Amino acid sequence: MTEHIHIDFPHKQAAHCESGVAANLLSNQGIALSEATAFGIGGGLFFAYLPFIRLNHLPMVTYRGAAGSLLKHISKIPGFTLACQTFSKPEQAMEALDKKLADSIPVGLQTGVFWLPYFPKALRFHFNAHNLVVYGKQGNDYLISDPVFPGPVKCPAEDLAKARFAAGALAPKGKMYHFSQVDEGYDQRRAIIKGIDMVSKMMTGSPFPLIGVKGMRFLAGRLCAWPRRLGAEKADLHLGNVVRMQEEIGTGGGGFRFMYAAFLQESGSQLQDAQLSTCATRLIEAGDQWRVFAAMAARICKKREKSGDSYACAAEHIRHCADIEEQVFISLREWVRQVS
Amino acid sequence: MGLDNLEHELLEAICSTCNLQDVDIASIQADAPLIGPDSALGIDSLDALEIVVMVQKEYGVRIESENSSRIVLETVATLAAHIRTHSPQLTPQ
Q1: Which residue of A112, A150, A211, A239 is 20 to 30 Å from A161, comparing CA positions?
Q2: Long-range pairs for A121-129 at CB < 8 Å and ≥24 separation?
Q3: Domains (ranges, CATH) in chain B?
Q4: Does A294 touch chain B (CB under 8 A)?
Q5: pLDDT tens-digit series, residues B7-38
């Protein structure tokens, strides 16, 4: 019977769902891991400007790795095994979920935000890669630790089934996962080095001009030309999208930089390595620059420019971010070479 | 819930930053939603960015992640409380 199940699960609010779920699931299995460290060892930071991928007719800009990549990278760390299933039918998927709960296993789910009734209506949008943890069931309601909420929430079974089988881009197909093996003695130092190596290479060593710091400079070049090429109205929509797409309220591209900086700070303390702390400070500067860019972009979009605000100036801020991040990640690549 | 001095000052700064005109600050409750569809000021996520930058510049207080932005910018009372806790220029009331 799965009607009244309550598994002890440490709910902790997080800035982003995937890193939050990873940290909470691992913490539940005895690995005290902050969200920032989960983000770092999962190689969560990234940048790409992908104009050939359109969302709402606007080019895609991403400040973090693809949805699902963080958990995938963490699952490859020696000592961790992530058991993952997808389903073709909602009935099978919900039955499998009930069985895991009956076995006292909290499980992560990939869901579509639009179908989760506990989200305020204004925040329900069609994003199908939202992660949460189900840790129990009371009658027809599932008990959910959704990391973007301050406390646990409940969701009726029918709504959860809809959210697990939301259609469209990144359709979850009932995806359900849990860590089937967690070695408490895993080599965290090695995981930190590998996570930093992965992100540093991607940010500074990609041959593709749309990825990493090259992608930032490419975006800056395009952004300068938007008013001329697209006209004022469309240019403003594109500019707003650069700021708004990934981070909804108040962080403006800087949020992931701040989180990665927190990971570097924590790792610097743990490994007693001052170079990581220095890189963290520089990355906070990059985050601040992203934020200044975003505030300027917001003023331009809202038609309340201050003196000096312009597309060209906004592009300069992005180039400055690229310069700082290039220095940080080249320095981290050297650090990886030294300590490996 | 009425406004204290800092909350009043913050609302003035927000109106100035976001170029909001004809706002009767005295009629705004300290615990009313600051951002989103229920905001009396009509502030959206792009405005929130400017508020975050203004707070950092004027009060020396950083609002770091999306998560804390959501919590801190929930109402003018939560924003004022965050500034009181973290500002080197202000002592907690």
Answers
A1: A150
A2: A122/B36, A122/B37, A123/A248, A126/A166, A126/A168, A127/A170, A128/A166, A128/A168, A128/A169, A128/A170, A128/A171, A128/A172, A129/A18, A129/A67, A129/A68, A129/A170, A129/A172
A3: 5-86 (1.10.1200.10)
A4: yes
A5: 999 999 999 999 888 888 989 999 999 987 78
